[in-house]
Amino acid sequence: MIEQEVLDPGIDADDDDFDVSEEADALLPEHRYLDREVSWLSFNQRVLELAEDPNLPVLERANFLAIFASNLDEFFMVRVAGLKRRIVTGLAVPTNVGRSAADVLSDISAEAHRLQLRHAEAWTSAVKPALADAGIQVVAWDTLGEDDRERMHDYFHSRVFPVLMPLAVDPAHPFPYISGLSLNLAIRIRNARTGRQEFARLKVPPMLPRFVELEPQDGVVRYLPLEDLISNHLDDLFPGMEVLDHHAFRLTRNEDVVIEEDETENLIQALEAELLRRRFGPPIRLEITDDMDELTLDLLLKELDITAQEVYRLPGPLDLRGLFDLARIDRPDLHYKPHLPTTPVAFQPGDNNERADIFASIRKGDVLVHHPYESFATSVQAFLEQAAKDPHVLAIKQTLYRTSGDSPIVQALIDAAEAGKQVLALVEIKARFDEANNILWARKLEKAGVHVVYGLVGLKTHCKLALVIREENGVLRSYSHVGTGNYNPKTSRIYEDFGLFTVDDQVGRDLTRLFNELSGYAIEKKFKRLLVAPLHLRKGLLRLIDKERHNAQEGKPARVRIKVNSMVDEQIIDALYRASQAGVTVEVWVRGICSLKPGVPGMSENITVRSILGRYLEHSRIFAFDNDGDPHVYIGSADMMHRNLDRRVEALVRVVDPAHVKELSSLFDLAMSDKTSSWHLGADGEWVRHSTDAEGKLLVDMQDRSMSAVQRRRRARAVR
């Protein structure tokens, strides 16, 4: 049994009084943060740089182009929309860089224009030709021979024409509603009888394949964009009319959901109403092809009530999210080499090759699993499935932020409830863009007898927690899982995350209290092995950072290591600045947004910031403090953002097994090494990619190295 003092994170009962002197704050310059929105665009530029990298398999490059497009859509639908909503409604616009919202929006527009043009160029001049060299061509209608055109004509009339809905605009037909993110054709036609020019809108059906496969030619697979096929059959849609011109366009709408929870009696009904309203949010971006004439553009600007600054004139094709379809082409030679996740060593079958007893394995000691290198199915999923079937299990409690209704996780909870166990599912129905899906399977859980709760008013429940109560020899034992990622089998294959399994009584008591408070009214209590937001997590981290600062001032070795998706919170950043000023080595490993300026003399010269992007999405959060030789290391769900620390229920758990602490430390060593491929952040906010050494050799791919490390551990176990 580990001593209680080791488990205690050192946050005293009076930590509400923790503060930093005004004198310490005075040592920090005024303009010490990078703009978060521009930093996000820099993150998406790093995604784009992967698409531009000729060393990557070409279908993976196409996939990164699609990811860039999808990311940018969400950025406009949420972040840009949120800024504009605040301006329109007169709300204060939070900015930590001392500039007006109008200036921020102007910078966003300029940078987004630049990136979208670079994105289009990457497709036209780099990825598309590379695909052609590999035997996959995306062709234009004008290049097709007569046989191909005849086959496509038949395909159009049998598979496309019946679902098209051309909408005229004239005195009897008002300008139609344009749905967000839909791809459309703006068509100008002339009535042959009257000579009058008219306008029509045609939506490209989203349920059809975006790239239509043609007959192979000389071993080359060929595809025709759907909008190109439709554009060359417009005469069939407007018989008796002369088609004068046509151009593609695409609209992005505000899809940010805003609910005043304290003013509604039924959260689900309010959310459903808000989701309906979201479909009709105001326009915030209009993408058009670069050949669109001014007459058509003026009509769109007028009817959509959008400004010229919000227009993005781009070379076609628009909406490169369609490349997700091409990226799934079955060409193993053009993809990353396949990786099969291994079963975590602790959960591997015994000599008789029977399935491992998950509970027996956890009783032997804490188990740390690393997805997707280690299997989600044979760890987290197996844990819950065994709990559902085990007659000794009395109760299961779990948070669910993003998953799917057909998920084996959801099915395990249903099976447990139907078997007569007490089952509590805390479902976060406000998880952005998963709201409707979450409502559906929350109701499915309720029908099966699961106790479904929706968290606390005003807070999203983002923590990743599962608690199983099992009776053993007349005593109740708590088996806990605290993770950094969602309980989602699908994303677990592409998201990098950690999860900790433990039978430690203190963690069990912490989770029991936390679940009781989540299904009750408030998060008030402090915990022993957990740090929990919104009340205590930021304070706990600030105290741990400040302890490193004091250690450095006393001449002791001091270091802070933080891995997050986003680093935005000013209090955390200022604490890291003060630690750096005292001589603390600070290493920040961030996937996305970073408002911290590293390497500024007198402020942050001891801070290093790295970013790693690759085949897997780096999603885990790690917080490590040297603590004068007694490392304190946490993993959990929280990013360093206001929403995570102030408006969400988040949880970090302390990792105490020395082997696990060493594993996490070694991962940081690899990520921060100059021999590892990564992006380095400069004091000016520029991210510079370091992927080759001075001799032009590729640097270490951290994710490939992590795969190898997991496989070595499995082989070592097999030898024993």
Automatic annotation (TrEMBL):
NCBIfam families: poly_P_kin, PRK05443.1-1, PRK05443.1-2, PRK05443.2-2, PRK05443.2-3
Name assigned to this protein: Polyphosphate kinase
Record domain PLD phosphodiesterase: where: 614-644
Native source species: Microbacterium aurantiacum
Residues binding ATP: 71, 495, 591, 619
Pfam family, one: PP_kinase_C
Annotated CDD domains: PLDc_PaPPK1_C1_like, PLDc_PaPPK1_C2_like
Gene: ppk
GO terms of biological process kind: polyphosphate biosynthetic process
